[in-house]
């Protein structure tokens, strides 16, 4: 059984330990901590730990990488909530960073989380070659050809500008999926897996990323507003392109099933019994928030 709460505590302890050592102005550190401590599922760190567990590697080896990844994810949420982007006042049931502090502080807190994440990443107990590979892959996943580029194309496609499933999938492979793929790839690098297993892990991550987004879109139609943290139907109200909008609700459910089956095939192709990865996939697609 996947130990989500245990993994969550583990990465949060590492983030807190890192922040304790960070000699930053109090207000900046408070703003960074405010968003880091906002909770969340910690799916990305969980993927790193799940891979390490599957290959029988001490999961503490992934703490610094998991914390760095969650810091980058958190920076992206701070910036996404800004008035120039999604203009959201609430996240996870409390005021967003720029409301709790101010816009300038929120921007700088996001900047600091992004840049200091790489300092945290370099604390990973690994060879220089593995550390270099982690830095290169995380920078790519988070940058212009990954998460940031996907976010821009998503913004440009709002108000009905996306009518093609392939285009929507391209956006979410970058915006949502890139950091998820990095998570399983990082776990593989830390576990020194074979190139074949690394390819299977990346395939799993790609399909998991799309499945994650499809489930998000389905929950926007069928979910409980209190659980998902936003009004049901908000995507449709904002005229955002979603899988249910392009495929219909039943079509989106079929697309979700196809992505899950492809992810399961990638797991089955691994050289080890990766039960934790299957359980994590099941959690992602059956979650209600």
Automatic annotation (TrEMBL):
CDD domains the UniProt entry points to: Trans_IPPS_HT
Reaction equation(s) it catalyzes: isopentenyl diphosphate + (2E)-geranyl diphosphate = (2E,6E)-farnesyl diphosphate + diphosphate
GO cellular component: cytoplasm
EC number: 2.5.1.10
One Pfam family cited in the UniProt record for this chain: polyprenyl_synt
One GO-annotated biological process of the protein: terpenoid biosynthetic process
Family designation: Belongs to the FPP/GGPP synthase family.
Keywords assigned: Coiled coil, Isoprene biosynthesis, Magnesium, Metal-binding, Transferase
Cofactor: Mg(2+)
Protein name, per record: Farnesyl diphosphate synthase
PROSITE patterns named among the record's database cross-references: POLYPRENYL_SYNTHASE_1 (PS00723), POLYPRENYL_SYNTHASE_2 (PS00444)
UniProt xrefs under InterPro entries: Isoprenoid_synthase_dom_sf, Polyprenyl_synt, Polyprenyl_synt_CS, Prenyl_diphosphate_synthase
Origin superkingdom: Bacteria
Coiled-coil features, chain-numbered ranges: 246-280
GO molecular function, one term: metal ion binding
């Amino acid at each position: 059984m996947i130990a989500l709460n245990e993994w969550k505590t583990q990465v949060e302890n590492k983030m807190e330990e890192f922040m304790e050592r960070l000699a930053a102005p109090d207000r900046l550190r408070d703003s960074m901590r405010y968003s880091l401590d906002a909770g969340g599922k910690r799916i990305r760190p969980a993927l790193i730990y799940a891979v390490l567990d599957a290959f029988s590697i001490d999961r503490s080896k992934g703490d610094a990488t998991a914390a760095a990844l969650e810091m980058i994810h958190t920076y992206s949420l701070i910036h996404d909530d800004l008035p120039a982007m999604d203009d959201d006042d609430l996240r996870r049931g409390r005021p967003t960073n720029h409301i709790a502090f101010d816009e300038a502080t929120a921007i700088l807190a996001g900047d600091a989380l992004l840049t200091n994440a790489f300092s945290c990443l370099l604390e990973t107990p690994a060879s220089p070659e593995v550390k270099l590979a982690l830095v290169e892959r995380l920078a790519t996943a988070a940058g212009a050809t990954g998460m940031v580029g996907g976010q821009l194309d998503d913004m440009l496609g709002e108000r009905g500008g996306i009518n093609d499933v392939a285009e929507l999938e391209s956006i979410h492979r970058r915006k949502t999926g890139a950091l998820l793929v990095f998570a399983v790839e990082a776990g593989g690098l830390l576990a020194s897996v074979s190139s074949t297993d690394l390819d299977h892990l990346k395939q799993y991550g790609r399909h998991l990323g799309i499945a994650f987004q499809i489930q998000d879109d389905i929950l926007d139609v069928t979910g409980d507003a209190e659980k998902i943290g936003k009004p049901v139907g908000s995507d449709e109200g904002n005229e955002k392109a979603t899988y249910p909008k392009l495929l219909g609700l039943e079509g989106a459910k079929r697309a979700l099933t196809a992505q899950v089956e492809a992810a399961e095939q990638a797991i089955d192709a691994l050289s080890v019994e990766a039960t934790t990865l299957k359980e994590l996939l099941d959690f992602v697609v059956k979650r209600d928030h």
